[in-house]
Each structure stands twice: as structure tokens, then as C-alpha cells.
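Morning, I've got a small favour to ask if you have a moment. I owe you a coffee for this, so here goes:
>
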Amino acid sequence: VWLEFRRVLFRSNKILNVNSISYNPSTGIYIITTSDGVTPLLLSNDGITFTFETGLKWIGYGAYTPFDYIPFDDTNYDVSGIEVPSDALYASTYHDNLYVAVGTNIVVSTDAYTWSEVYAPNQNRTLLLKDVQYFNTTSFTGFMSVGQLTNDITGVTNEIVLTSFDRYTWTNPLQSPLGNNGFNSVATNGGIIVAV
């Protein structure tokens, strides 16, 4: 088995705080999430060239979308902007024609270019979701995200688990906080779901 590792360099003179990468074999799109407030998401169709941010608009130099059958510029493709309403993202996943990314909020997309916010914390709360997965187990089928939620007034931080059956409505199934360390990741063996 031969594995090739390459260092991905971004044409940017700022630190992006890259923290996760996911790949969707159905669409061939790589998604990198970052905790940088201006650049929360990077896309690539080849795993080598990723999008980068110029000013306030994202320019997709590695993620091209069809323009139409009449040539535009030199090809039938146009460079596409990415719209992501988030301050920071920490993880992403894909299931059933929907991308989900989590961090300081939860955003969804059907094409990886235009994202919509579907969940944000209540006022005076700071959300930090670190992982999101789609599970199909004997006891749960849907999206699950884990992280921490901080009360900005009291300073108390608790673990949070958010679940969604329809991808757009997210709820916390925990009856009471489990602790104050926060969760970082969640996985399943098909029977039980474990968060750490």
C-alpha cells in the first residue's frame, strides 16, 4: 500500500487555524474547517488546491462549478464564491445530499458553496461544537454533534450534545449537564455511540 502525503500550502499570509478535513466521495469535494473568523471553510476538488479568501469574498481556485454550455472566459466553468455564515468551524460531514459543518453554530449546504445557519446558541451563550457525524444505529438515526456550551454570565461550561433527525432542527437530548470539560469527538460501532 502506497500512501502519499503532501503539505497543503495556502496563499495567505495569515494563520488559518485549520482543524479538520473531510472528503465526500459522492461529489469529490474536500472540506477543511478552520477556527479563523474570516476564513471558516476551504474547499477543493483535487485535495491539493483549496479555496482562499480575498478581502470579503471567497474565491474558489480549486473548486470550479459549471457555468453553462456557452463558454465563459476560457472554459465552461466559472470561479465560484463561497458564502458561510459562521465565525469558526471545527468539523463537517456529508449525508444524503447535505453537508453539515459545526463550530460556533451549525451551518448546512446542498452544494458546499452556499451555506445557511440552522442553529445558533441563545443570547449570553458561547457554543463550541468540535465534531459532527451521521449515525444509523439500532437506537439512533440522524446527525449528532458534540462540544461545549458556556454561559457567558456565570462562566459555567458544560458538555453539549445536539441531535437532528431532519438536518435543520437541532435539540439537546441531555436532561442535565454531564460535566464541565466539553466533548471533542463522537463515534459509533453501529450499536452504541461514544463521545469523548
Remarks:
- Confidence is low (pLDDT under 50) at residues 53-79.
- Residues 66 and 77 are 5 Å apart (CA to CA).
